[in-house]
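Here comes my example:
=====
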Amino acid sequence: MITARAHTNIALVKYWGKKDQNLILPQTDSLSLTLNEFYADTSVEFRDDLAADHIEIDDRVVTGHAANKVINFLNIIRKMSGEKRYANVISTNHVPVSAGLASSASAFAALATAASKAAGLDLNRRDLSRLARQGSGSATRSIYGGLVEWHRGTDDLTSFAEPIMEKVDFGIEMIALLLNTSKKKVSSRQGMQSSVETSPYYPAWHKVVAHDMLAMKRAISNQDIDQIGHIAEENALRMHALTLSADPGYTYFNGETIRAIQAINDLRSQGISCYYTMDAGPNVKVIYNRKNRSKIIDYLGKLFGQEKLIVSKPGPGVKIINK
């Protein structure tokens, strides 16, 4: 049995839309920060005594659609490796599922790593990134630590992630503000497809991302946390404009999301640099320089409760943990 640990990542420049649903090829490039505090541990063993794949997630046997996603992914690995046996898969999430905190990114990055090794494959990180992508798009970035770019590519071979800066040696951090950790009503997959097909603003999204990718990489090179935060914030708002402008329109925000956005704007007006980003869920992630951490925690803790704040430093890439 092989066990792998992969950390989740939060996109600073988002892709929001696929051009190939089967291979999970994105419409645009993207760029993310891997987080230390959120991760999945996944163990895989191919066994002679199993008549079907057995999948447990968080101490619960998984069936139906969720199981089929894992089984289809295992089938890809079986085809690659020649492994004929069924697998025992046990996974534990240290991140809320389906709440806009990229639980699928850490889950499939860990599964790709553990299952490929258990099947006898010895993939390099680029090929692991390509493999993980076929389980969950954002998983392609969770193979790596730190700041990571996903090249959209044009086919399976050319769509992969690679690190921009794995050892993040400047003061960027992120606070996850957990406003609601229940499962979202509109899945990322559904939401993306609706935006691609029906938002009149979607064609402009390609230009927005192309511009933001260049600007973000320049800001990272300059270790300019204010600029990184500003670009990420604007990119997030424009992504969520695609959800509002779809037909029918929808949003991942709730009242607390708006309240958190206003609180971060209020902090900035007081001279404390911090910025927000949101993915497909109501929870808000705050980007800031660690020197401002205590002031931000104090302010947001009084409004939302200290228990809802989780501080995360940049996290590492995927690794085998049971050697």
